[in-house]
Amino acid sequence: MSWTATARYGLEPAPGGLAFVQDLLNTLSAGKPRELDLLQTADDARAWLDQALRSWSGVTHRPAPGIELTAEDVEGLRGFRHDLVQSLHARHGDPAAEPRPGASVLTLPTALRLDEHGVVHAEPRGTGWRQVASLALTEVYQAQCTDTLRRLKSCRNTRCQTAFYDRSRNNSGVWHDVHVCGNAANLRNYRARKRAGADRA
């Protein structure tokens, strides 16, 4: 499947439908040099969403919902993305997590459908950005139930914040790429310790 937002950071997608959530998070402008915000304009957002829904359908083997995004929806979708990023930080105990001014608990409609094989599916409802958010939160909830959500993380580098799926055995990863963000952070810490030692001497 082609998860365009996640692929541009050279990352593997999260398993199943959780990759949709990761891809939404990775529409942010991040990296070095910085990639474009894929939700900058309505056309950008529609192009991203069309591809993401095709990929979601491919990994879940379910038909993609038809979602129309207006220019007004894009602002709402960016606000939802911000809240989702902050929830990742809060989940992993990051004191830098900052709720968006005016943000509140988000309640979105979802339908439960029993299929012919006896399997219950949660289906997003609403329109525009709210339908996108309903789909994303459905996948977040399902990942909570399977205990895979704890592996979806935001890079600890505050200049990056790329969303990655931690595949380490003990779930200890903190950088989306240890060679890019990890080395830079370790170098900064080393220099700070060296300066502190020089000041004490």
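The above is record 1. Record 2 follows with the same two-line structure.
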Amino acid sequence: MMRIHVYESVDSLDTGAWDALASPKSFYMTTGWLRFQEKMNPEQRCRFITLWEDDRLVAGVPTFLTPRPANKHYNVAEMFPGAVPDGSQVLLVGGTRGYQSRILLDDALDASRRGIAMGLLVEQVQTMAEQDAGGVSWWLYFADADMELLRPWASTLPRVLRGDCAIDLPGDSFDDYLEATGRRRQIMRDRRRFDRTGCTVVRRPLSELLSITGDLLSKTQNRYGFEVTPQSMANLLKVQNEATGNTGFVYACADEEEVVGFCLAYEAGDTIYGRAVGFDYERLRDGAEYFTLGYYAPIEHAYRSGLRRLHLGTSAYEAKVLRGAHITPLWALALGTRPWEPEQAVEHNAAKLAETRASLPAGARYEARVSSGLWQTLA
């Protein structure tokens, strides 16, 4: 017999049991990242639906009831004009930051019990939606497998929001990675450029570099049009570090004694998750510093540590694909309403697929890096 229990805070969860389900699927579903979301937007109501079989956690999903998501890319009213009444509460399922939600199901469940578990999770979500959000729940940034699980409860088709990029690491050495990319010359050219800078790469806990990473992150954010201060970014990283239990590591580019660039990463399951980068652009030396910190150093660490994947997140598809990434879709689906017609979803998904392919280098092998049978079906 399966039973539902809803928790009002991450710290009320059995964090070990939750993370045993979450870590293999996504760092962004682990309790550390969920705790960070709680702390960053205290006006939202966080609830964590858990499903137990005897004394074993077999399924779970986080929910966030909010009038104003902190991240504009989770603001349903802006993303889907007309789909949400002005000023109404929105029930987000999966997360409010990170762009990678997953339904947590124990892999040991057989098909029948998985179906039962999904029915109970959806029923609980929709009960909460009826009470607080006009009967509608919004499932944002979920993967193909999650959409297949959810579609029996949906009255329309899902829509692609973004492409998610990751490099699956073949073999057991950096040389195997080079061979698989088909871009050995370019990557080795990047490596030589970095060597000529005289800089070194060090891997340090985020807690040791909070001040300098805040300063460098603010420089990168400002460069791309976001008005932030070094102190605000240092504070954000401090909250993130505390919430995630000091598990973040920084790949830092050191110019003699000073850090001039960094990539912040986390590990969960068999994957390294690149989270943020920051640079002092005036001190860079045209040495492929971004690719060194964001790609090559984490990949080398992955091979040394037995990790098998580097997650790179959304956007900048060309650069990521040229270094071995595949692109999979992240979907939006509303339950309890029909915010768009199926034909509109198909048209939207086809346009997104064409736009994504157009952003890639020419050639069939790069086009094949957009790997999703569901995207093809729903476009």
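Residues 2-163+330-377 form a domain with the Aminopeptidase fold (CATH 3.40.630.30).
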